[in-house]
Write a structure and sequence with these properties.
- The protein is 47% helix and 13% strand.
- By secondary structure, the chain is α/β, with parallel strands linked by helices.
- The protein has a single domain, classed as Response regulator (Rossmann fold), CATH 3.40.50.2300.
- A three-stranded parallel β-sheet has the order 1-2-3, sandwiched between helices.
- The two termini are 22 Å apart.
């Protein structure tokens, strides 16, 4: 995913886990987060909830290969900007990124 985002013209950094991201300097300085729903230790939705309760405003795109309506609603309630289904069309991802970064 990092390679695709870079190919679309954005700066991107990947992390092996939610905890690694939260402990990095990028947590404080990132302008957008793209997170997978299924990750080890902490799900993408749990990470988004953690960020929302931390007071850090971080526009987020949540991606999943297993979309469901209830998760989409929860994601929207905690402020996730886009809920995308994988595999994601690069044009759809580009539109979501541009919209997220522009705000």
């Amino acid at each position: 995913m990092v390679g695709l985002i870079r190919a679309l013209g954005f700066v991107a950094v990947g992390y092996p886990s939610a905890a690694a991201f939260l402990g990095s300097e990028h947590f404080l300085h990132a302008c957008c987060l793209i997170v997978d729903m299924r990750m080890a230790s902490m799900s993408g939705l749990e990470l988004c909830r953690h960020i929302a309760t931390s007071g850090r405003a971080l526009p987020t795109i949540l991606m999943t290969a297993y979309p469901d309506h209830a998760t989409r609603v929860l994601a929207q309630e905690i402020g996730v900007r886009f809920y995308l289904t994988k595999p994601c069309n690069p044009d759809v991802l580009l539109k979501a990124l541009r919209s997220t970064v522009a705000d």
